[in-house]
Design brief:
The protein is α/β, with parallel strands linked by helices. It has one domain (3-156): Hexapeptide repeat proteins (UDP N-Acetylglucosamine Acyltransferase, domain 1, 3 Solenoid), CATH 2.160.10. The protein has 4 helices and 16 strands. A hairpin with a 2-residue loop joins β15 (134-138) and β16.
Length: 157
């Protein structure tokens, strides 16, 4: 990728993370190469690690991201000898589907898809795909419930 394009994406992302107006923040994230769906809310402090490659991070419509979420689509040992001698780099898109909600300080690792309507508890580290409507917590994140269970319980009462 040309250095100028990468620099402009980095600048847009930096500005986005310091912008208090959500609509402008979302537009700046889009300019930086992150796909942000309609009616999504991306809070301040998003860390997106994607080498500024467009389309590597996809945030679906009506998604809610709390402050300081980290989305990692590209990870490598950089200048360590490990990177030269072993193939340990990860480079795979992160997809957050419609209506998912990620709490404060959630980390999503490369290649993970967060299912529709899923909830990820604060501080969780998501290393594997998340089913639709799953409630996930922990490190690594494990399923603790289903969003639809509350509605089902209320209907039974």
């Amino acid at each position: 990728m040309p250095k100028l394009k990468r620099a402009l994406r980095a600048l847009a992302r930096l500005c986005a993370n310091h912008c208090i107006i959500p609509q402008i923040r979302h537009s700046l994230f889009r300019l930086s190469g992150i796909e942000v769906g309609e009616k999504a809310f991306v809070n301040m402090g998003l860390t997106a690690i994607d080498d500024y490659q467009g389309g590597r991070i996809k945030i679906g419509p009506e998604v809610a991201l709390a402050p300081h979420v980290t989305l990692v689509s590209s990870s490598s040992p950089n200048h360590s000898f490990i990177g030269k001698e072993y193939d340990v780099s990860l480079d795979s898109p992160v997809v957050i589907q419609r209506g998912a909600w990620l709490g404060v300080n959630v980390v999503v690792m490369p290649g993970v898809t967060i299912g529709e309507g899923a909830i990820i508890g604060s501080g969780s580290i998501v290393t594997k795909d998340v089913p639709n409507f799953a409630i996930m917590v922990g490190n690594p994140a494990r399923q603790m419930g289903d969003v639809r269970d509350k509605k089902r319980k209320e209907e039974q009462e």
